[in-house]
């Protein structure tokens, strides 16, 4: 993106999401150029009319120091995983020629997948665990857009809308496989760690899930091994008002909310 493209992207973002309070980015040349052209400079005499508009909305633009991408934190991690998956998908599907409409729709589906990820718990009811997602903050809605049917790789060579859905499903499968390990620390078993307990809220690693589904569960029973370590648990889940219990190994769940002591 050049400076003009960056400015257009900002205007599209403001047009859809409304005025922003803060812009944060690295020191990419397009960002620096756009900030200068928009008037984000210290000299007040160089301020442009668009700057006065953004300043009136209380908007600021903060840059991370050069060569420290780790200061981007969460967004750099999301960008890195997304780029790796998209690069791999486009290399494997070179025979598929994407129109501008198909590409834009596909990237919108990718955005929906990223924004549906769980962040922090907001429900105090252990029977119905409820997590906050970026999409909830952006849309003020709790539901997610379910895919309009089942799609396979064969759909990549059919109508455009089926091509988009097949690619979105492929991205969902790959991204979920990369994102879940970031929620679960893996260490050598040199020191004992906390066992899962009754009352813990966990995220289930289910393979056969529709796009943007994140099944949560409450541990109702634990099954100690001969050495006292918990390796198998019983999890209670709720979906559409129907409760179900499943037996799972601890490797197939991720601890989200530990049980409060006392």
What does it look like?
- With 262 residues, the chain is α+β, with helices and mostly antiparallel strands.
- It has 3 domains: 3-69, no CATH class; 72-183, no CATH class; 201-257.
- 36% of the residues lie in helices and 18% in strands.
- The strands form 3 sheets. Strands 8-7-6-5-9 form a 5-stranded antiparallel sheet, with no helix packed on it. A two-stranded parallel sheet has the order 1-2. A two-stranded antiparallel ribbon has the order 3-4.
- The model is unreliable at 42-49 (pLDDT under 50).
Helix content: 25-40%
| Beta fraction | 15-25%
The average pLDDT score comes to 78
Overall radius of gyration? 23 Å
Largest sheet: 5 strands, antiparallel
Please report the total strand number as a whole number.
9
Classification by helices and strands: alpha+beta
In angstroms, what separates the terminal alpha carbons? 54 Å
H and E order = HEHHEHHEEHHEEEEE
C-alpha geometry: globular
The total number of structural domains is 3
The total of helices stands at 7
Major sheet strand order? 8-7-6-5-9
Q: What ranges have pLDDT less than 50 throughout 5 or more consecutive residues?
A: 42-49
């Amino acid at each position: 993106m050049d400076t003009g493209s960056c400015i257009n992207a900002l205007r599209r973002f403001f047009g859809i999401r409304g005025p922003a309070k803060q812009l944060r980015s690295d020191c990419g040349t397009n960002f620096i150029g756009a900030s200068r052209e928009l008037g984000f400079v210290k000299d007040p005499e160089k301020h442009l009319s668009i700057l006065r508009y953004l300043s009136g909305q209380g908007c600021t633009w903060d840059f991370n120091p050069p060569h420290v991408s780790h200061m981007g934190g969460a967004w750099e991690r999301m960008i890195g995983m997304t780029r790796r998956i998209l690069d791999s998908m486009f290399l494997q599907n070179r025979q598929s020629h994407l129109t501008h409409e198909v590409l834009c729709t596909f990237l919108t589906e990718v955005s929906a997948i990223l924004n549906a990820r769980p962040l922090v718990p907001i429900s105090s009811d252990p029977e119905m665990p409820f997590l906050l997602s970026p999409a909830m903050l952006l849309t003020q809605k709790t539901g997610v857009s379910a895919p309009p049917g089942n799609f396979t790789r064969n759909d990549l060579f059919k109508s455009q809308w089926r091509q988009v859905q097949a690619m979105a499903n492929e991205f969902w499968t790959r991204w979920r496989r990369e994102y879940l390990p970031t929620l679960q620390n893996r260490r050598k078993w040199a020191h004992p760690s906390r066992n899962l307990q009754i009352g813990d809220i966990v995220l289930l690693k289910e393979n056969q899930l529709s796009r943007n589904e994140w099944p949560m569960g409450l541990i109702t029973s634990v099954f100690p091994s001969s050495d006292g370590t918990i390796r198998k648990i019983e999890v209670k889940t709720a979906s559409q008002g129907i409760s179900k219990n499943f037996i799972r190994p601890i490797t197939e769940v991720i601890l989200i909310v530990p049980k409060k002591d006392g």
